[in-house]
Each structure stands twice: as structure tokens, then as C-alpha cells.
Amino acid sequence: MLKKLQQLKAILAYKNSENLGDIAILKSEFFGTKVSPTVASKLQPIVGYYPVIDLNQLS
Fold it and tell me: What is the DSSP code (8-state) at residue 52?
């Protein structure tokens, strides 16, 4: 229940932002939307991928 309340607060916070992709993800998590098996299989190669970030280059 607490997790759902936190998710709802996050959705409301993003409502007026320009981060439409973020709000779509938050809404899908809140409502328990599942991805189709076809899409899930196409996304499998990128599961766990995190790009290398060079902090020195960013500063």
C-alpha cells in the first residue's frame, strides 16, 4: 500500500513535467501493466545493460 502511494505521488509530480516517457513508465507500474511476450522477447538483449559513464568527461 505504501509503495502504491509513493508511486501515485511520483505520477502526480511528473504530471506537469516534460518527462512524458517517465510518467508513462510510472503509470504502467502503478496499474500493473504487463508487456506483451513479443515485445519482451525483443527487449531481452538489453536487459541489465548500463552504459559506461565517464564522470571526468561530464565535469
Answer: -
